[in-house]
Amino acid sequence: KREGIQDGLERLTYATGLGALAYVQKQEAILHEASSKVGVSGSELPKTVERFFEEWKSTGKKVEQLSAILAEEEAKELMMESEKSGKYTFKILDVDVEMLMKIAQMVAESESGAIAIANKQGNLVCACGRKSKFMSNEILDEVVKKQG
């Protein structure tokens, strides 16, 4: 390995003899273990890892798109429920905090509707539409008193 000690001065560390042999054997063991995990030979490993990485990125984008659609549908349902009842809607969802925030943002950007949503981890978000008769802080106080 190479280390920069100070400007113009470098330290080189290298292995020779048995130390070099041990290093190469360790690297080969790592390569063999990685290739056996994905079920390919060592020479095919770079191409396979690249393919897995591309598939992983693609899957992440699809999950993000589906998450946005789910948030939009959940927000619509909650707003309709709130508008029909004339009250705010409280619901506990099985989603992460980012999804709670997305749903609340959509409600906040709407005309009416008022919601308080929580997840199973205990996160709570309140939102009201621009022309809603409710105030988020009042909903929050009421929900906290009721739910503890």
Layout of SSEs?
Blueprint lengths: L1 E5 L2 E4 L4 H22 L6 H41 L3 E5 L3 H12 L5 E6 L4 E5 L7 H12 L1
Parallel strand pairs: 3-4
Antiparallel strand pairs: 1-2, 4-5
Oligomer: single chain
Portion in strands: 15-25%
Give the % helix: 55-70%
Rg of Cα set: 27 Å
User: Total number of helical segments?
Assistant: 4
- Briefly note the structural class of the backbone: alpha+beta
What number is the mean pLDDT?
91
Taken from the alpha-carbon principal axes, the silhouette is elongated
Q: How many strand elements? A: 5
What separation lies between the terminal Cα atoms? 58 Å
Order of strands in the sheet with the most strands? 3-4-5
Poorly predicted residue ranges: none
Q: Secondary-structure element order, as H and E?
A: EEHHEHEEH
The main pleated sheet reads as: 3 strands, mixed
Task: Please tell me about this protein's structure.
This protein has 148 residues and is an alpha+beta fold. It is 59% helix and 17% strand. It contains four helices and five strands; from the N terminus they run ββααβαββα. The chain has helices at residues 17-38, 45-85, 97-108, 136-147, and strands at residues 2-6, 9-12, 89-93, 114-119, 124-128. The strands form two sheets. A three-stranded mixed β-sheet has the order 3-4-5, with helices on both faces. Strand 3, helix 3 and strand 4 form a beta-alpha-beta unit. Helix 2 (45-85) packs across helix 3. The longest helix has 41 residues, at 45-85. The protein is elongated and about 80 Å long. The chain starts with a strand and ends with a helix.
